[in-house]
Design a protein that fits this description.
This protein is mainly beta. Among the domains are: 103 residues, Ribonuclease Inhibitor (Leucine-rich repeat, LRR (right-handed beta-alpha superhelix), Alpha-Beta Horseshoe), CATH 3.80.10.10; 45 residues, no CATH class. It is built from eight helices and 61 strands.
Length: 690
């Protein structure tokens, strides 16, 4: 039975992969299928196997109807091992799948410019093919749709002739805007390629294995034919004006390049592309560049001008991989269409200024940031030493680390109320920072934001009333600071603001709306935390490594508990999750190995991952009506002790909270946890609303 089944499967497979040789009529040595009232295609037939010479006519007559031959059909000459020559008329527009597959004796092929597409494996196995001739021009060849590498006869001949003239120094005309996939795949005869700015895209594998480049490139990656040019890159590398280009990426350049004009079809400048180009004096970057990778212009000490052919919005959108990715770090200026930018105006079409965007742009004297911008990236204006004034629009929410660092002439800047996060170092070594008259009791304030400290704090510290925002890193590593008091004016606490200080307790007022990532990370003695009801999110790593913390109550106002927010709080035994929480990030309670009780008041199980929790043997208490939902959840259902939140009244008369005394209210015991119920609202015994 097995042998019979194997035989049937084999026959079915052969039926699928073998040609059926169906055709409508024969004319001369060839067979045809009718494709319309006026057109036919050359059809597959076993008689083709003995063909030596095939001349496809432009027209063929059948039943007194004159048909135009427009296609060479799928497998038309498949396995014609005796075929040595083929004539294709200029009526043919497509060559089908495997049309000349395994035509071992075929030595040359001439393709007319009427052909617009060639199918998969069309010339696969044509091992004797030594000439591909195209009757047309380069622009037309670039536009042919090749289905795969073996659709292009160049893959076997390794050369291209245009009207019987071999192409060695390829010049793409400026009428071409794109070069299709596989167009010059394995064209070994090419010695150089010139691509004009009219080209906007270069297809996949277009110049793969075109081994015409030499050694001596500054990126220390010589394009040896055996290593890189032939075997190394998915898209073959070409040289344009001394730049080494791979697809749409500049990957290197010659040492003696003095002027680099990035072609319009390039979208990326790769790592170290111009590194150590000590002769480079001018670089012109096209508006289509969207990323410049790390160290792209490292060591270009002779660079005196960076010119960009787009606009300010386009420049702000470029993603720079580091300080020396931006050529401004060497030229210290920026020209937009050859006009030097001194008074920079960020238009309202820009929503963010990326990292390093204007790093060390010495020529800038003023900056005005539009109202559409929501973030200013890390090091965005670092080192702009001539910058004297900055106006920030009222939509900016975040100012990145070292954003204005070393702007030594900066004496005027505003921080709008929209800003909720200022990273550390944002205004260090500015004219504002260096002016002693701007400091009050060793504290630097800008508007109503606490920016920096010059003093070392012993014991308790009270933030000045009126402060709205505390900048990142302000109290970082104040090892002798044991307590911090927040006025009701504080709305935002920036990233790393209190990281690694030695406080033992923390009470966040209800007016605080934002606590940014890692704000209290590493406060190893912090054992008690009270979160205000103004918070809607616990950001990533806010309380990571607070190893003395034993319990935490997340108020109902919180909707998200961020990634690693309580990771490695190794003393944490009890967590109460308010009913507003809908998401718990990965590693939120990871390595909290003592966690034994989780009280979750959310009606639906918050989305989470297995890594959100340290283990699944803690006791989990959820609303009685929601138990089945939790048990059915992919993560919560893994807890072995999932129970209903039991509630009963207790006869305790008075409970004193941290901020008020709760009298004349109902006292509840829920799974052994004492709660207060007053006017339909539940409170912890500390008087904090759940």
């Amino acid at each position: 039975m097995k042998h019979l089944l194997y035989l049937l499967c084999t026959l079915l497979l052969l039926a699928i992969i073998s040609p059926t040789y169906a055709y409508d009529f024969q004319s001369g040595d060839l067979y045809y299928n009718i494709t319309s009232n006026t057109t036919v295609e050359v059809a597959s037939h076993y008689d083709h196997e003995d063909l030596v010479t095939a001349i496809i006519p432009k027209n063929v007559i059948y039943n007194n109807i004159n048909y135009k031959v427009t296609n060479i059909g799928d497998q038309a000459f498949d396995n014609c091992s005796s075929l040595t020559s083929i004539t294709i008329p200029n009526s043919v527009t497509s060559i089908g799948y495997a049309a000349f597959r395994n035509c071992y004796s075929l030595t040359s092929v001439t393709i007319p410019n009427s052909v617009t597409s060639i199918g998969w494996q069309a010339f696969y196995g044509c091992s004797s093919l030594n000439k591909t001739n195209y009757v047309g021009n380069i622009a037309e060849w670039c536009n042919i749709d090749f289905a795969a590498t073996d659709a292009n006869p160049i893959c076997c001949s390794h050369n291209l002739y245009i009207n019987n003239q071999e192409i060695k120094d390829l010049v793409i005309p400026n009428t071409v805007d794109s070069i299709q996939d596989y167009a010059f795949y394995e064209c070994f005869s090419l010695k150089s390629v010139t691509i004009p700015n009219s080209v906007k895209s270069i297809g996949y594998f277009t110049f793969f294995r075109c081994c015409f480049l030499k050694k001596d490139f500054v990126n220390n990656s010589p394009l040896d034919a055996e290593e890189n040019g032939y075997w190394g890159a998915l898209v073959g590398e070409i040289e344009v004006d001394g730049m080494i280009i791979q697809g749409t990426t500049v990957v290197g350049c010659r040492k003696n390049v003095t002027i680099a004009t990035i072609p319009n079809y390039i979208t990326r400048i790769g790592s170290n592309a111009f590194a150590k180009c000590s002769s480079l004096t001018l670089v012109t970057i096209s508006s289509r560049i969207n990323s410049i990778e790390s160290s792209a212009f490292d060591g270009c000490d002779a660079l005196t001008k960076t010119n960009y052919t787009g606009d300010i919005a386009g420049w702000c959108a470029i993603k720079f991989g580091g300080l020396s990715a931006n050529p401004i770090s060497n030229s210290h200026n920026l020209y937009i269409n050859n006009q030097e930018i001194r008074d920079l105006v960020i238009p309202n079409t820009v929503d963010s200024i990326h990292n390093y965007a204007f790093y060390e742009c010495f020529s800038l004297t003023s900056v005005s940031i539009g109202n559409s911008v929501t973030s200013i990236g890390d090091y965005a204006f670092d080192g702009c030493s001539s910058l004297t004034s900055v106006t920030i629009g009222n939509s900016v929410m975040s100012i990145g680390k070292n954003a204005f660092f070393n702007c030594s002439s900066l004496t005027s800047i505003n921080i709008p109320e929209s800003v909720t996060n200022i990273w550390y170092g944002a205004f260090d070594n500015t004219g504002i920072y260096n002016d002693e008259s701007n400091w009050e009791n060793n504290v630097l304030y800008i508007d109503n934001c606490l920016i920096a400290l010059k003093c070392y704090i012993e014991g308790e510290y009270t933030i000045k009333d009126g402060v709205r925002l505390i900048a990142g890193g302000t109290f970082w590593d104040q090892n002798n600071m044991t307590k911090v008091n927040f006025p009701n004016s504080v709305r935002s606490i920036s990233a790393l603001a209190f990281s690694t200080i030695n406080i033992t307790s923390l009470e966040i007022p209800n007016n605080v709306k934002n606590i940014e990532e890692r704000a209290f990370r590493g406060c190893r003695y912090l054992s008690t935390i009270t979160l205000g009801h103004g918070l809607t999110c616990i950001e990533d790593k806010v309380f990571q490594d607070c190893r003395a913390l034993t319990s935490i109550t997340i108020p109902n106002s919180i909707t998200r508990v961020g990634v690693s927010s309580f990771e490695n709080c190794s003393s944490l035994t009890s967590v109460t999750i308010g009913n507003g929480v809908t998401n718990i990030g990965k590693y939120a309670f990871y390595r909290c190995d003592r966690l034994s009780d989780i009280y979750c008041y959310a009606t639906l199980p918050p989305s989470s991952q297995e890594s959100s929790f340290p283990h699944f043997y803690a006791y989990v208490y959820v609303p009685c009506e929601s138990v089945q939902h939790y048990r059915a959840d992919n993560v919560w259902g893994k807890f072995q002790n999932l129970q209903c939140l039991d509630t009963e009244e207790t006869d305790i008369e008075n409970v004193k909270g941290s901020s008020q005394t709760l009298n004349n209210c109902n006292k509840l015991l829920r799974n052994g946890q004492l709660l207060i119920l007053r006017d339909g609202v539940e409170y912890t015994i500390m008087g904090h609303e759940l």
